[in-house]
Design goal:
Length: 287
């Protein structure tokens, strides 16, 4: 296993779990070594960082795998369950083994995140991904509703309007209009099981097809899993074209997708305040 930057891991995970997580972070090399011995794994590099876990590339013989460790075993067990649920789609990594606070998955190869590809995925590729995921039945499990997810996000991110740097670009009026649009869409939404967090950083190049990781499933409008893909064309004047094209490829209502783009554009703009071209196009779309 390559050396672990415990300070980096601690700084990253403390943002979610608070300072007490430092003790767990200090034990990451020891924990990984214990699991490797138990499951006969050869450990490799620490993979790109996440907000709630540490992922280590590993292998057993010639088979590449990914070992995920988290200080929140309930979260990790839930994620394993969700990945198994989405397994029939063929578009998530397979779960190979799990124990408390530890998850072993097949590796996705080449595994480049979609937001790091030289050329973003084509609309047809994204459409095929969401169609496969949305084809998995919800099986009457008590999944969260998309409305609850949106209400939480608008409340949490809306607090940032108190920051003058944010308020200089996103007004209370713009934010209120965005929520009104979102609420209207939620009132009339069709309902399928969604990945729920399908931004380009959570989609990997699987060689022959795109693969989704880190699902946060909820039930709601299938357009929701396409919005991030459409809005990342901002800054190049391509949001309407990309939205129309991917909607057609995925057999989605293009008008609903355009409305979702307008509703969520201010939220995405806050994440890109330093990118003038992207911020400007997103806020123009919101208005």
């Amino acid at each position: 296993m390559t050396p672990v930057d415990v300070d980096e891991i601690t700084s990253r995970l403390a943002q979610r779990f608070g300072p007490p997580v430092a003790g767990w972070c200090a034990r990451v090399p020891e924990l990984a070594a214990e699991v490797a011995a138990r499951w006969d794994l050869t450990l490799g590099d620490v993979m790109p960082p996440g907000a709630s876990s540490v992922v280590v590339a590993c292998s057993r013989g010639e088979a590449p795998m990914a070992l995920k460790l988290s200080p929140d075993p309930v979260f990790l067990a839930s994620q394993a369950s969700v990945l198994r649920h989405f397994a029939p789609s063929g578009r998530v990594p397979a779960v190979l083994a799990e124990a408390e606070g530890v998850l072993l998955m097949e590796a996705v190869r080449p595994g480049t995140p979609a937001d790091e590809l030289p050329t973003p995925p084509a609309p047809r590729e994204w459409a095929d991904l969401v169609t496969a995921l949305h084809g998995v039945p919800d099986r009457d499990r008590p999944w969260p509703d998309l409305r609850a997810r949106c209400e939480e996000a608008f409340t949490r991110i809306g607090r940032r309007l108190a920051d003058p740097a944010v308020a200089a670009h996103v007004s209370e009026r713009t934010w209120s209009r965005a929520w009104d649009r979102c609420s209207a869409l939620l009132n009339t939404q069709p309902r399928v099981l969604l990945h729920g967090d399908l931004h380009l950083g959570n989609v990997l190049d699987g060689g022959h097809a795109l693969v989704a990781i880190d699902p946060r499933p909820c039930v709601g409008d299938p357009c929701f899993d396409v919005v991030d893909y459409a809005l990342t064309a901002a800054g190049h004047g391509d949001v309407p074209t990309r939205a129309t094209t991917v909607a057609a490829a995925a057999a989605l209502d293009p008008d609903r997708l355009h409305d979702w783009c307008r509703a969520l554009a201010p939220m995405i703009a806050i994440a890109y305040l330093d990118d003038e071209a992207m911020r400007t196009e997103l806020l123009t779309l919101a208005r």
